[in-house]
Fold:
Amino acid sequence: MTAARLNSVNGIEAECGGSLSCGTCHVYVVGDYSARLPPPSAAEEEMLSLVAADRRESSRLSCQILISGEVDGIEISIPESQY
Amino acid sequence: MEKIVVGAGHAGFQLAASLRVANFRGDISLLNGEAGLPYQRPPLSKDFLKSGRHDALHFRGPEFFSDNEINLVAEEAVQIDRVQRKVVTASRNELSFDHLVIATGTVNRLLEVPGAGPDIIYIKTLGDAEGLRRRMPGFRKVVVVGGGFIGLEFAAAAAPEGIEVNVVDAADRLMSRTASRMVSAWFEEQHRRSGVRFYLNATVTAIARRNGAIEGVTLNDGRQIEADAVVVGIGSVPCQSLASEAGLTVNNGIVVDQYLRTSDPSISAIGDCSVFPSLYAASHIRLECVQNAADQAKCVALRITGSATPYTSLPWFWSEQGDDRLQIAGLIDRHDTAVVRGAPEDRSFSVFCFQADRLVGVESVNRAADHIVARRLLTAGSSVDPAKIADASLDLKSLLDRHLPPS
Structure:
């Protein structure tokens, strides 16, 4: 989420700055990267249940996606809206 | 077509960004009274005190401004010429506008007592926060003047470092402007457990010094508290002189209508400096929060690009004190009934505040999902039955209608 913000990717609002408290950094993880990420915590699950745009299998809160070698090349798509 | 934005805080930055999102193609000048890139304020009293990381503070990297042709001007505006429609800067540059947005924010209310001096600490700018970070390792005893969000966030950062923290507040409870009695009491207890001490119904009447260095403070009842540093968080005062000197109406802020226009139709005012009519209050209010800054900015950007709608966004706030997060949806300063959900003893609960059976606000402590639902309910003006809320078996999400407008 921070990388997206600092690189001017539009559509990730991230109101709460990454504290799992707003649900406005919602993204869809493309392809099999979804399976490579650690599954959502209970707290992330709860916020995912409230996202404004369609919740899909591939939905994650981008503040919970940590950039590391393991996710090199990860592609995400941005929902229509975060509200 | 030239838009000028005075102030590059949350409101000013958002206005410039939102103009480009709305496909505005004309010139935008964003006047920043501070050096460096525009940055977020909330982390200054929270994460930043621990991490000191600048990159996490900036709204965007430097290319954002050049890529979006937002002219970031590192100058302060000193005068608005409404006749010629131009802004004069401190170095005598003149910038013409067809629309001007004033987003000058606030300045800290100063502790003006005998013994006050430049070593009294305020937390407003990046410079303030950096200075505080550098000095903190040397603190043994700190008096925090003001038991609002800023004072308590600092207290929560300092106490675990072994610093003796004493908080002084004029009211009979903490966060008296924004929180319910129950939430005030809950946080007071959490802070006490960390060793923070409180002096309520008290004001600081003097700072005592020895050889120039702070030695302590004196309270209105004569009690003295030892301290080697004093941190002050006693509220803010709107920066309205640019507006008032240009003949715009001011009254505890720059007065605007429901479209956030000042008394001059070519000039808008947004964010902490604006005083505006709100659906959520009986009269004009001035809000000091990121939500208001960002939402007012978006509202004005849409208006000046042709989509005018009244400003009706729901106020919401948050505070992080230690490991605890308080989120507040709505304005709860007037409520007659409070219904609690969750378990305060488990550090996760919400307080639903009603005024004459109408839900006016919800405070959530470590319960973000409740907060998100509350924002949607309050924005929709949904009728909420206090008895239903009190039923622990109720799933709050069931109160959400599929067709509710976004929060």
About this structure: The mean pLDDT of chain A is 90. The CA atoms of residues 4 and 12 of chain A lie 8 Å apart.
